[in-house]
Amino acid sequence: MAKLHKKGKSGAAVNYITRNQALKKLQVTLADFRRLCILKGIYPREPKNKKKANKGSSAPATFYYSKDIQYLMHEPILGKFREYKTFAKKMAKVMSKGQYSTAKSLAENKPIYTLDHVIKERYPTFTDALRDLDDCLCMIFLFATMPKTDKIKAETVENCQRLAAEFQHYVLHTRSLRKVFLSIKGIYYQAEIKGQTITWLVPYQFSQDVPTDVDFRVMLTFLEFYQTLSGFVNYKLYSDVNLVYPPKLDLKLDEGGAGMNALIIESTQSTANIAQSINSSVAQPTSSTAASLSKEEKKRLEESEKRLRTLTNKIARIQESNGTDQASAESSTNDNDDAMDEFPTPLPNLDGTSSSTVTFSDIQRASQHLSQFQSLFSNCYVYLSREVPRYSLEFVLRACGSHVGWDPVLGEGSPFDENDERITHQISDRPTQGHRFLSRQYIQPQWVYDSINAGKILTTEPYHVGRTLPPHLSPFVEAKDGDYVPDANQFEGQTEDLEIQSDDEEEDEDEDEDEDEEEDEEEEEDAEHKDLHQRELEAEAKGVAFTEFEAKESKKKAKASKAEKETAATPAAAVTRSAAGKKRTAAEVEAAEAKELAKIMMTNKQQKLYNKIQYGKDKKAAEVEKLTKKKVELANTAAKSNKKAKK
Questions:
Q1: Exposure check for the chain: N or C terminus, fewer CB within 10 A?
Q2: Is the pLDDT of residue 210 over 70?
């Protein structure tokens, strides 16, 4: 006889654990448990049968995997939480007694924990960290614009601003920016780093009103983790391109509002050369100077010499460790890719070649297009007026190779002023200008973003100051079959005169076609009228009455129209007309008949599903047709108004 299984000892009852049971098992408060779950990336689970998971109880509960809670029991941060709880009790006791010196020593020995091991556990490879960088950047850029409050410390805001500026500098240095979109929420940026697409949102720099109904305790826990992750990622990115991390900060430029220019970006090779030159330039003091120095000064001099001698060795060790870490990370990523990624083999074409085969010409074309995009504004000297957002325009322009200057009101550190003759474009958002330079284009800020999304420099005429701007389309929308795709003329890089000219030519062609059709109809009517008159004369010569002649002609017309209807009704005709009046070929008729036969063979369930799908397609097609008609009407009215303006 088989052994009986006890209830609640296997299955969902063992695999899941409620939140209250987890709190008792870990012996922590609910706030600490939430904080620990956020840091470790553990979230609630939904069992298939809640009653079985709750051991027969139907009371509402939050469930977690039992293995996850068991995993948390060995977490070092949990011990730090307990140490901090003990520290808080001691601090409260000492402060109540008024022992401030003891409280000061306790505060100096406050328990501190780091999240380095958590980052390494959650992201074994650098590619995994890049894939999860979207939310990290959104949170950091959000808190970088926050004001200081009782819940948000000034240190947190400054650290977020530093991390955001460091990441932006890397995107500038490598020219990794790909797409930009201005939305109501903020500005969306998309960059391609190490083959991974990273999209983040940057809020507009307006005065922020901190809401009171937001749980900042949870957000600050996420921010604590994301700050550590961003520091790891920035260090790795800077090390891969041989840049010193963290970059130095020019305090004078930072106080003057220089923004990203306050950071000094240096190469690791230049720092190594500087250290080597310092080491070689150190000389032994002469006997006269050595005699004049005191014993303490001699000791300090000897210690400084030893430090300078060992400086190059330390830098070499750091570079070697960075190289080994990079090699191990690359090997682990390759192993992970080999183990996890599965690519289906493409089916060969009729000629034996694969349909998705990438040729050398394709690779060369893609690399050439990418290099052209990265240097899109390399020949442009752009000046930013004081009313435009410098924090965004400077970033996107420099990421595409442009030379950017700005008004002194926007901050210090501009490489050139407004009177510079090299300036080709001045971005302004005022309808009127006090003075104008004839050698440059005055455009609105949207021209920069539309040019980046189009991948080429667009014509500046639709974006001139004071004009109504063309629609700013989202580059993140991927059109599917049957969707309406707006055909914005400004993305073709043509001038407006050419577009108007093409519209005029199309209208002239349509008018010519209408005139030709009218002439053909008139010629046919004249020929029919002549034939009818000839038959009347012949009937009159034969002595046939006019009434009999009219009756015969009406019978002939009725027979001809009946024959035309019969031929139009037969499916074997080479060309038939549909209900909408459009011509269909014989192949299309056969395809429609085959579809009808397939519908007959469907079950009721399949027919209902097919009708739903077809209804959705028809609805989408009707919307597309409505939008296209509206677009054609607007284009016609615009062309007519342009004609009138020219006349």
A1: N
A2: yes
User: 502: pLDDT confidence band, cut at 50, 70 and 90?
Assistant: very low
Please report whether residue 261 resides in a domain.
yes
Q: What are phi and psi of 205, to 5 degrees?
A: -85, 70
State the Cα–Cα distance between residues 223 and 515, nearest whole angstrom.
Answer: 71
Q: What's the pLDDT at 259?
A: 77
Distances (CA, A) of 20 to 23, 27, 28, 32: 5, 10, 10, 13
Q: What is the pLDDT of residue 315?
A: 56
Same domain, 69 and 184: no
Residues 6+ apart with CB under 8 A from 322: 239
Taking the C-alpha atoms of residue 138 and residue 163, their distance in angstroms, rounded to an integer, is: 12
Total tally of structural domains belonging to the chain:
4
- Provide the pLDDT for residue 282: 46
Summarize pLDDT for 214-257 with one digit per residue, the tens.
Answer: 889 999 999 999 999 999 999 999 999 999 988 888 888 888 87
- pLDDT above 70 covers a percentage of the chain that reads 74
How are beta strands 196-202 and 187-193 bridged, if at all? antiparallel
Q: Which pLDDT band, with edges at 50, 70 and 90, does 563 fall under? A: low
State the burial class of residue 240 (Cβ atoms within 10 Å of its Cβ: 0-12, 13-18, 19+). middle
Residue type at 454 in one-letter notation:
A
- One domain, residues 148 and 262: yes
Residue 407 CA to residue 229 CA, distance in Å, equals 36
- End-of-domain residue from the set 244, 266, 288: 266
Q: What are phi and psi of 189, to 5 degrees?
A: -120, 150
Nearest to 189 by CA among 211, 164, 163, 214: 164
Q: Report yes or no: 145 and 203 within 8 Å, Cβ to Cβ.
A: yes
Whole-angstrom distance, CA of residue 381 vs CA of residue 373: 17
Count of other CB atoms within 10 angstroms of residue 409: 10
Is residue 54 domain-shared with residue 188, that is, in the same domain?
A: no
Say yes or no: 97 and 141 in one domain: no
Q: Facing residues of 267 across strands?
A: 243
Q: Is residue 34 part of a domain?
A: yes
Distance CA 53, CA 8 (A): 8
99 and 139 assigned to the same domain: no
Whether 132 and 235 share a structural domain: yes
For residues 393 and 202, give the distance between their C-alpha atoms in angstroms, rounded to a whole number.
13
Q: What's 420's domain CATH number? A: 3.40.50.10190
The pair of structure tokens assigned to 133 is 């960088």
Tokens of 212: 């009171």
pLDDT of res. 325: 52
Residue 159 lies in a domain: yes
Residue-range definition of the domain harbouring residue 490: 380-476+484-494
**Token pair in block for residue 326:** 């990079």
- What contacts 496, CB < 8 A, 6 or more positions away? 459, 461, 462
Q: State the pLDDT at residue 352.
A: 44
Which of 437, 467, 494 corresponds to the end of one domain? Answer: 494
pLDDT more than 90, % of the chain? 33
Query: For the ranges 371-385, 490-504, 628-642, which has the lowest average pLDDT?
Result: 490-504
Asked, for residue 361, whether it belongs to a domain, the answer is: no
Burial of 212 (0-12, 13-18, 19+ CB in 10 A): exposed
